[in-house]
From TrEMBL:
Gene3D superfamilies, A to Z: Amino acid/polyamine transporter I
Taxonomic classification: Bacteria, Bacillati, Actinomycetota, Actinomycetes, Kineosporiales
UniProt cross-references to InterPro entries, sorted A to Z: AA/rel_permease1 (IPR002293)
Protein name: Amino acid permease
Species of origin: Kineosporia corallincola
Keywords: Membrane, Transmembrane, Transmembrane helix
Keyword Disulfide bond applies: no
Membrane topology: Multi-pass membrane protein
Record localization: Membrane
C-alpha cells in the first residue's frame, strides 16, 4: 500500500503534508560532497547512547528528584525508564528501517509529512541546543567543585558565572563547548573513541559509588518512603526524565553506522537498559546512604551522600571528577546529535543547503558544526542554568510522541517496507509510549508550555518564509511518496 500524499497535489494542504519517499530517503546521494562516513559499530553506538544519557541527570538532578519524591525517587527513575522503553522500541524500528541522519525529524518526514517534520526538527534544535548550553554551564560548576575539593581553589565568579548569576561570562562553559566542537569537526570515529574512554571512566566511578553506598546502607533513611505519595513520584519522574535524554541521540548517527540495520536497534535498547540499571542502583544507594535533606540540599548530591552519609570526605573530589567526565561526554553526544539533525534539515532544503556541505578532509559537516558550536558557546557564556531541564524535557517528550505515531503510520502505510526490527504488538506498545509521554508532559508547569509554544511559533514563521519555498520536495516532486 503506497503512502497517500500526491506529488501532483496543488493545494497548500497537500504540500504541507507531503512525505519524503522512503526509497529516496534510504538512497540519499552518495557523492563525495553529500556522504557522511560510515565509521562506527554497535559497541561505539551503545557507548554514544550511554555517553549521552549518564551525566547531569544522575550526578545533579537526583537531588531535585529527591526533594519532590523523597526516597521514592527510586520509583520515579523506574517510571521514567518505562516511559522511555516504549519509545526506544519505536526508535529502534525506525532507525534500522530509515538509516539516515535526522532522527525523529527524518522519521516524521517519511511518515507524517513535511510540516510535522519541520515542527519536530525545530523542536529538536531547541532540545539539543539548550541542553548542550545548560550542560556546559553545569560542567563549569562541577569544574569549580572539583578544583575546590581537590586543591582548595576556585575560579573567580567573574569568569565562572553568567551575568544574571553575578559574573561577566562563563569561561569554563565556553571552553568545553569549543573543545567538543573541535573533536566533532575532526571526525565521527575520533569522537566515538573519545566518548568510549569517558564512558568507561564514569561507569567505573558510579560502580565505586554503588559499592560504598550499599556497604553503608541505612534502612532508616527510607522512612517515610513516599512523603508526597503518587503525586510526588510522578512530579519527580517528569523532572528526572532529563536523566534519560540521550539514548535517542544514537539515531541521529544512523548515516554513520557501519551496519545500521543490525547495530542501531542493539545500541538503542542496550544503552537504555544499561543506564536504567545504573540509575536504579545509584538512586537506591543514595537514599540509603543519606537523608532526603542532605541529598536535596546539595548541588552535588552523590558527593554529599558519600561525605555526610559514609564519612568519606575525599570521595567528593572523585565524584566531582566523575561528574566532569560524565558531563563532557553528554555534551559531545548531544552536540553531535544537533549537528546531524541540522544537517538533515539543510540537505532537505528546509534550511540553507550550503551550511551542510561535508568537509572532504574530515568527512563531517565541519562548517555547520563550527557555527552551531559558537552559537551554543555564546548561549552557555551568558545564560544561567534555570528552567533548562523542564524545557528540554517537554521537547524530548514531544519527539517521543511523534516517533511512536510514525511507527503506527508506517505499519499500515508501508507494511511491505523491509525492516530488520519491528516493534512487537504494534500499535499497542507505541500507543502506550504516547500515553506515557503525554502523562509526563501534563505534569510540567504552564510557563514551560508557554515557552515551548513561543519557540514553535517562531519556527513556523521561518518555515513559511524560507523552508516551504525552498524544500527539496518543491524542486524534486519525484521524491514525494
Amino acid at each position: 500500500m503506497a503512502l497517500t500524499s500526491r506529488p501532483g497535489g496543488d493545494g497548500v494542504g497537500s504540500r504541507l503534508l507531503a512525505r519524503r519517499s522512503l526509497d529516496s530517503l534510504v538512497a540519499e546521494p552518495a557523492d563525495g560532497e553529500a556522504q557522511l562516513k560510515r565509521a562506527v559499530g554497535a559497541t561505539q553506538l551503545t557507548a554514544l547512547g550511554i555517553g549521552g544519557t549518564i551525566g547531569t541527570g544522575i550526578f545533579v538532578v537526583i537531588g531535585e528528584g529527591t526533594s519532590l519524591a523523597g526516597p521514592a525517587v527510586v520509583l520515579s527513575f523506574v517510571l521514567a525508564a518505562v516511559a522511555c522503553m516504549f519509545s526506544a522500541l519505536s526508535y529502534a524500528e525506525l532507525a534500522s528501517s530509515i538509516p539516515v541522519s535526522g532522527s525523529a525529524y527524518t522519521y516524521s518526514y517519511a511518515t507524517l509529512g513535511e510540516l510535522v517534520a519541520w515542527i519536530i526538527g525545530w523542536d529538536l534544535i531547541l532540545e539539543y541546543g539548550v541542553s548542550v548550553a545548560g550542560i556546559a554551564v553545569g560542567w563549569g560548576g562541577n569544574l569549580n567543585a572539583f578544583l575546590d575539593n581537590a586543591f582548595g581553589w576556585e575560579l573567580p565568579d567573574a569568569i565562572a558565572k553568567s551575568p544574571e548569576d553575578g559574573g561577566i561570562f562563563n569561561l569554563p562553559a565556553v571552553f568545553i563547548v569549543l573543545a567538543i566542537t573541535l573533536v566533532l569537526v575532526l571526525g565521527v570515529r575520533e569522537s566515538a573513541r573519545v566518548n568510549l574512554v569517558m564512558v568507561g571512566i564514569k561507569l567505573a566511578i558510579l560502580v565505586f559509588f554503588i559499592i560504598i553506598a550499599f556497604a553503608n546502607f541505612s534502612s532508616g533513611n527510607l522512612t517515610p518512603f513516599a512523603p508526597e505519595g503518587r503525586d510526588g513520584v510522578v512530579s519527580a519522574a517528569a523532572v528526572i526524565f532529563f536523566a534519560f535524554i540521550g539514548f535517542d541521540a544514537i539515531s541521529t548517527g544512523s548515516e554513520e553506522a557501519r551496519n545500521p540495520k543490525k547495530d542501531l536497534p542493539i545500541a538503542i535498547l542496550a544503552s537504555l537498559a544499561i543506564c536504567t540499571i545504573f540509575y536504579v542502583l545509584v538512586s537506591l544507594g543514595a537514599v540509603g546512604l543519606a537523608s532526603t535533606e542532605q541529598l536535596s540540599g546539595s548541588d552535588a548530591p552523590l558527593a554529599a551522600a558519600l561525605d555526610e552519609g559514609a564519612g568519606i570526605t575525599w570521595a567528593a573530589a572523585l565524584l566531582s571528577f566523575g561528574a566532569l567526565v560524565a558531563i563532557t561526554s553528554v555534551c559531545l553526544v548531544i552536540l553531535f546529535g544537533q549537528t546531524r539533525i541540522f544537517y538533515a534539515m539543510c540537505r532537505d532544503g528546509l534550511l540553507p543547503p550550503r551550511l551542510a556541505r561535508i568537509s572532504p578532509r574530515f568527512g563531517t559537516p565541519a562548517r555547520l558544526t563550527v557555527i552551531l558550536g559558537f552559537l551554543v558557546a555564546l548561549l552557555a557564556a551568558l545564560v544561567p542554568l534555570s528552567e533548562i531541564v523542564k524545557l528540554v524535557n517537554i521537547g524530548t517528550l514531544f519527539a517521543f510522541i511523534l516517533v511512536n505515531a510514525g511507527v503506527i503510520v508506517l505499519k499500515y502505510a508501508r507494511p511491505d517496507f523491509p525492516r530488520s526490527y519491528r516493534v512487537p504488538l504494534n500499535p499497542l506498545l507505541p500507543l502506550i509510549g504516547i500515553a506515557f509521554a503525554i502523562y509526563l508532559m501534563a505534569d510540567l508547569p504552564g510557563e514551560t508550555w508557554l515557552r515551548f509554544l513561543i519557540w514553535l511559533v517562531f519556527g513556523l514563521v521561518i518555515y513559511g518564509a524560507y523552508g516551504y519555498r525552498n524544500s527539496r520536495l518543491r524542486r524534486e516532486p519525484e521524491n514525494v511518496a
